[in-house]
Each structure stands twice: as structure tokens, then as C-alpha cells.
Amino acid sequence: MTCAHRLRLAVVQTGLALVLAVLAAARETAPGAAAAADSAAAAADGAAAAADSAASTAPAFTIYYFHGTYRCESCLRIEAWTEEAVRREFAREIESGLVDWLAIDAQEDANAHYAARYQLTSQAVILAAWRDGEVARWKSLDDVWGLLQAKDEFQDYIRREIVAFMGPER
User: Rounded to two decimals, what is the model's pTM?
Assistant: First the structure.
């Protein structure tokens, strides 16, 4: 589940809890409020269904390219070749929502948490598998640096690693 999906889910869940608390209080204090409370409860059920839907549509796999603010020729090449391979080889999985592709500036303050999560020390291609809104496992594709002079080999490496990482879930 991406950060945006987790944030949406948290907002919906927080709103749902607040609505339910207000409904409970209204039922206890206002005798005529039962119909309004039932209507609000139906709306809360809809919010819960939306939260479940957001969780179920979150990708199972995220392919990241983490880069710095300053981008050298090699960094730009890694991103371009990786994105090209991912979008070509996994178009169906991206379209279905199984896979997400993200290029992220790891030096931005808002993205600092990624450095700890994925042990980033430089630019990196990272594969992440998600379960129940949490990263269940991840892998860094460190060999990209040694394949910068051979586009076909580079992209074949990306494809093979992703297929192996995804396993039968693909």
C-alpha cells in the first residue's frame, strides 16, 4: 500500500470512529435522533467500505527508484532504463493495480523515512512487497550500477529480478 493509500485509509478510519462516537452519544441523549443516527450509520458503513476498497486496490508490489536532488548522467540512465523496462514488461500488472512504479527524491525531507526503511546510502532500485499495509519484504537491485553500459542486459536484469521477486503472485 503506498503512502497515499495509507494516509487515505487512516483519514477514513479516523472519520469513521468519530462518526460512530457521535452517533452513540446522539442515540443516548436525543429520543428523536434515532432516524438521523441510522442515516449517519449508513454513511459510516459507506466510509468503511471505501476504506476497505482503498486497501484492496493498493498495489501488492512497488518498484522504486530512489535518487538524490542532484542527478548525474548515470542516475538519469538508471531511472530511464528501469522505468522503460517496468512499463513495458509489467504494463498489465500496473494497469491492474498489482504493481506501482515510483521515482522518489530521497533527499527531500518528506521522503527521509525511506532511507531508514530501505537502508539507502545512494541511488537505488528497490522492490517492495506489501502485506496488510506494511512492507513485508524488499530487495535492492544493486547490480544496476555494473550494467550501465549495456541497456539490454540492464533491462533483462530488471525484468528477471522483478519476476523472481513477485513469484507466483504475478
Answer: 0.66
